[in-house]
Structures are given as C-alpha cells and as structure tokens.
Write a structure and sequence with these properties.
Blueprint lengths: L1 H6 L5 H8 L28 H18 L2
Protein name: Alpha-L-arabinofuranosidase
Length: 68
C-alpha cells in the first residue's frame, strides 16, 4: 500500500488517494527501509538474521510487483 501510495499512478487505488490528498504526481521514491533493528532483543518480535533476510526478500519482491 505504501509503495502504491508514494509511486503509483492516479489510476490505482492508493495513487488516487495520494492525488486526493493534494499530490497527484508520484513521489518517485527509489530507496526504502524495511524494518528497524528487528534483530535486537529490545525490539518486540525480534528475530534472527536468517529469518530477517527471508522476510526482507519477501517484502522486496512484493514491493517490486507494485513498482518495478
């Protein structure tokens, strides 16, 4: 949803919402941050590196489907 909102066409659901919010042109975001130190024991739901990489790659594939 966030990728479509930021970079999607106004013909998409979330691109149209962005336009309605006053910014019809896509923001053209190129770099995204996925997660915030999910390996830290101080984080709720912390995980290990192996699982983080698995989920990171899953998120990246989903994001590229919306905005190649």
């Amino acid at each position: 949803r966030e990728v479509e909102y930021m970079n999607g066409s106004v013909l998409t659901r979330f691109g149209a919402l962005r336009a309605r919010d006053g910014h019809p042109a896509p923001y053209d975001v190129k770099i995204w941050n996925i997660g915030n130190e999910p390996y830290g024991k101080w984080e709720l739901g912390h995980t290990n590196v192996k699982y983080y990489v698995l989920k990171n790659n899953e998120f990246a594939r989903a994001m590229r489907r919306v905005d190649p």
